[in-house]
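Incident review: delayed structure delivery

Summary: a single-chain prediction request sat in the queue longer than the usual turnaround. Root cause was a stuck worker, restarted by the on-call engineer. No data loss occurred. The affected request and its eventual output are reproduced below so the record is complete for anyone auditing the incident later.

Affected input:
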Amino acid sequence: MKPIAIALAMAFAATPALAQTADETNCVSGDADARIAACSAVIQSGQETPVDQAVAYDNRSLAYRLQGKLDQAIDDAGKAIALDPDNAPAYLDRGIAYYAAKHYDLAIADFTKVIALKPDYVAAYNDRGNAYDDSGDHDKAIADYSHALVLKPDYADAFVNRGSAYEEKKFNDYAISDYRSALKLDPNLQPAKDGLKRLGDTP
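Output delivered after worker restart:
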């Protein structure tokens, strides 16, 4: 699977809300089991505003996804969206879960919504590019990766992902160039090394 925005999504989703009681604090913790238990307590308390409930559902969604429980992750992110329809992190997290479950059309729709809400959110372009690429639409994937690189020229994952899309189209010179650019930014990026090896090149 291509590099996606999991780390960025975690930072994006962990909003400053829910930071008073122990449950509210643990609902944004890094430990998945603790987060699920704490977010569940926050949701069941009935004391939060709809927006804060949405944050709790989205944080629990992220924890479920980290555990590989994609159906629960998708369901919780959907509940967050129902409570707060402009919740960009929830669309992003549901999109990543859809992508992991290989529901590419649904992932593309959610990433597109993130972009509509936050047009400069660079990782959403990378993630939508991944969904386009894995669904076979390499041209749209390349366009999204390229847009991500306009917004963030040092985005190594976007270079390696665009290189993979170029490789799928047999544009090997472009692919090699992107893999090399990725390795200049991150010399340990294994997918870029693997790409160069496949194409008979060296880092």
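Verification: The chain is about 75% helix and 0% strand.
Action items: add queue-age alerting; document worker restart procedure.
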